[in-house]
Amino acid sequence: MSDDLLTNLNQLIDRLGARRHRALLWLSGIERETFARALRLWRARAWQAPLWLGPNPPAEDIAALPMAKVRTRLGGEQDLVVFDALSTDSGFDPDAFGAVSGTLRAGSLLVLLTPSVWTQGAPQPDADYARLAAWPYQASELSTRYLARLARRLASSPQVVYWPSGQPFPESKLPPITAEHAAKSDDADCLSADQAEVVDRLIRLRRRRPLVLSADRGRGKSAALGIAAARRLLASERELWITAPRPAAVEPVFERLAALLPQGRREGNRFQVIIDGEHAEVRFIAPDALLEAVQSERIDSRSSPTLFVDEAAAIPASLLGRWLTAFSRIAFATTVHGYEGTGRGFQLRFRARLDRQTPDWREHHLRQPIRWAENDPLETLTREFLLLDAEPAEDGHAAKALKNYEWRLIDLDRVALAEDEAALSELFGLLVQAHYRTTPADLRQLLDAPDVRLIAAYAGDICLGVCLGQLEGGFPTELATAIYHGERRPRGHLLAQSLATHAGQRDAAHARWCRILRIAVHPVARRKGVGRKLIEHLGERMESEGVERLGVSFGAEESLIAFWRAQGFVSLRLGLSREASSGEHALMMGRALSKQAEGSIESSSRDFQRLLPNLLAFDLKRIEPDLAASFLWEGPVPEIDEDDVARVAWFAEGGGELALVRPWLAKAWLAWWRDMPCESSEDEVKELVAPLFLGDESTAQQEGRKSRLRRWRLLTLRLYDHHRSRNR
User: Fold this and answer.
1) CA–CA distance, 496 with 423 (Å, rounded to integer)
2) pLDDT digits (tens, 9 = 90+) for 105-138
3) Are the C-beta atoms of 215 and 365 separated by less than 8 Å?
4) Helix ranges restricted to H, 20-93
5) Sheet strands (E) in 391-439
6) Of 183, 229, 294, 519, which has the fewest beta carbons less than 10 angstroms from its beta carbon?
7) With 70 as the cut, is the pLDDT of residue 344 above it?
């Protein structure tokens, strides 16, 4: 160990510790030599829980962690992380980099290893690019605009500590000053006054007054949930539920519970404890299981347990809204500039619903960092490299541009976009804001995924909308047939392969599609036709390239279904199970771009409608009635004859039971529903969806049998009056 290395390294760590900051140390070179330098760093100090991320550590006593498993370390703390983006079978994983950066405490180092070509501004596709290489591409064929941008940012940033190959360890350039520390708390369990205030608000959570917590990473948000959960149990609460996109996100909650309630025990996703002779527990439930529990147990909001929702930005707003109704005491916590989901987009999408359903809701933003101090270099660099804080144009600027300029559509050049930092950040900010889950890897997909088409709407130099599409399908006949029979699964092509393999649409894999991955419109430009024009422009471009179909896949939700249906898309396939992270069923829709494709799309749509009643009666019988009504709106209007009307009238006037008239009444309901100009969410007749199509004869009010029957007869009378008035 050279004296220069030890002296300069210790000086850097000491100065970082005095400032309560962290640093990014960049090592670039050939693999053997760069690994040797990284090993010297690893051996130089008695690091706390050092972590080597990558497949090939340079010594047998170093236990490496694969990039894909980095989330198992969330909630822990390290003071050294070596991030191997150098090995031939490794690469730069944007999601792993974003996740692990938040686990480093003050006075620590994140050591990034890269090939020497990064310093020359010409990175080559690494092993992680295999995830982007959809058939028929190989990773080596892809562009590296994303890595080139990252290399430029590394080389130009004064906050990066660079250790060149063949040179001594760099001397610290940080001034030897101590940063101001966060305000301390009088609460012994809390590490900042900010965190203590949040805990107090969570303890005093009131009925029908939700609390929305937002924070950047490292502010102690999840720990605050754990402290508050423990204190609520100690006070009198006996059951508290918590949900998040994945269990790893709430590990800090369980850690705080274990620390504050040492007499308790954890069993899987439950923490159980005996308090004053009574059993109490905190239970983690995944979003899909939580929705299932809400539906199957018929949770009464008057007696429901308290619910904490962590990382709420990564969960669809429609799902959050259902929980808002079901749980009288609820808190939503979200990361503002996170590696999955953003607090800004969450609040923009969800605020209106909070105002409508629970106008007394409260919010609090955690500002004080706990693991590090303000102006931390690593936090700044991570946000910059991954565009975690990307924002669309300010509302005022966008409104002014919309007023002064006629907006236009542009086919964007991704080469130019990658080198225009302001334009890239503004465009990516739109995508982040519009989608409930956007990860750092999505930026790489935008810049380097093959066969991507990028359309944007601009007023002056302000981006008002963006549409991202990717070519799919076009498999040769033999391979398409193998996909149809479930014998082959080439990389990528989600829509084309799923429709062929799971929906039995024989020509879906052979046909050429453009799947719309994302579409986003600036809030000030919504309802002005921007989204529609973006889709039309993409369709025209695809048709000129010989692509016959547009497609889209998304978590089924009524407003999204209505939007895509208004653009001429029809339903083609519905996932039978809810996605664990979103709690929603994936819906695939399509639209023909040529006469030749129209027949195939119409045939697939008819198959979907033919299958739908059976799915609703069995596999999907627990979906929400409003969502079922959205699916049922498609298809031709059934013809109602005199016998149908007579049966409906007989039931409406007091004859028989619902079970004895269900086929005729279901037909009459469908005729009424499909005769509507659009899916109306206000008409009470939709109450018949559950008993007619989902096999659910209960009601939200838990009425008795006679009351339910009386209600159904009244609604049936309205259907009868509708059909009678149409036939006059």
Assistant:
1) 32
2) 999 999 999 999 999 888 999 999 999 999 999 9
3) yes
4) 31-44
5) 408-411
6) 183
7) no
- As its CATH architecture, domain 392-615 has 3-Layer(aba) Sandwich (3.40)
> Among all chains, which residue has been given the structure tokens 């916590």?
333
Task: Give the Cα separation of 1 and 674 in Å (integer).
Answer: 78
Contact 162, 12 (CB under 8 A): no
Helix-helix angle 595-617:625-632, to 10 degrees: 150
Q: What pLDDT, on the 0 to 100 scale, is given for residue 437?
A: 75
Q: In this predicted structure, what is the pLDDT of residue 351?
A: 84
What are the residues whose beta carbons fall under 8 Å from the beta carbon of 655, sequence distance 6 or more?
Answer: 661
Give 638's DSSP letter.
Answer: P
Q: Which two structure tokens, joined as six digits, stand for 249?
A: 């996100």
d(Cα 187, Cα 204) in Å, to the nearest integer?
16
SS3 content of the chain, % helix, strand, coil (to 5): 45, 20, 35
Instruction: Give residue 131's identity as a one-letter amino acid code.
Output: R
User: What is the rounded CA–CA span in Å between residue 404 and residue 490?
Assistant: 48
> CA 647 to CA 720: how far, in whole Å?
10
What does the block give as tokens for 359?
């106008």
Side-chain-side CA neighbours of 40 within 13 Å: the count stands at 17
Reply yes or no on whether the pLDDT at 345 is more than 80: no
Q: What is the 3-state secondary structure (H, E, C) of 255-308?
A: HHHHHHCCCCEEECCEEEEEECCEEEEEEECCHHHHHHHHHHHCCCCCCCCEEE
Instruction: Sheet with 278-284: list strands edge to edge.
Output: 265-267, 270-275, 278-284, 239-243, 306-309, 330-335, 211-215, 362-366
Fold of 3-163: Rossmann fold (3.40.50)
Which H or E element spans position 712?
A: helix 705-726
Question: What is the sign, positive or negative, of the torsion defined by CA atoms of 146, 152, 155, 157?
Answer: negative
pLDDT at residue number 177? 58
Helix, coil or strand: residue 82:
strand
β-pair type (306-309, 330-335): parallel
> What six digits make up the tokens of 449?
């995924």
Give me 294's structure tokens.
Answer: 């809400």
The residue type found at 32 is R
CB atoms within 10 A of CB 176: 10
CA angle 137, 552, 628 (to 5 degrees): 145
Contact in structure between 233 and 299 (CB atoms under 8 Å): no
- CA-CA distance, 102 to 87, in Å (whole number)? 23
pLDDT digits (tens, 9 = 90+) for 504-563: 999 999 999 999 999 999 999 999 999 999 999 999 999 999 999 999 999 898 989 999
Contact predicate 119/109, CB 8 Å: no
Residue 514 backbone class (left: φ over 0; alpha: ψ -120 to 50; beta: rest): beta
Instruction: Please list, in sequence order, all residues whose beta carbon lies within 8 angstroms of the beta carbon of residue 642, skipping any fewer than 6 positions away.
Output: none
What DSSP string describes 161-230?
EEE-TTSPPPPP-S-S-PPPPPPP-SSTT-SSHHHHHHHHHHHT-BTTB-EEEEE-TTS-HHHHHHHHHH
Q: Same fold for the domain at 3-163 and the one at 193-366?
A: yes
DSSP state, residue 137: -
Location of structure tokens 């892809």: 142
Q: Strand runs (DSSP E) across 314-451, as ranges?
A: 330-335, 362-366, 408-411
Reference 387, options 349, 417, 346; nearest CA is: 417
Least confident of 71-75, 206-210, 274-278, 588-592: 71-75
Average pLDDT over residues 356-377: 92
Task: Spell out the domain ranges in the chain.
Answer: 3-163, 193-366, 392-615, 642-726
Distance CA 561, CA 608 (A): 15
Question: Quick count: other Cβ atoms within 10 Å of Cβ 660?
Answer: 13
The residue among 209 and 295 whose pLDDT is bigger is 209
193-366: CATH homologous superfamily? P-loop containing nucleotide triphosphate hydrolases (3.40.50.300)
Q: How far is the C-alpha of 394 from the C-alpha of 402, rounded, in Å?
A: 12
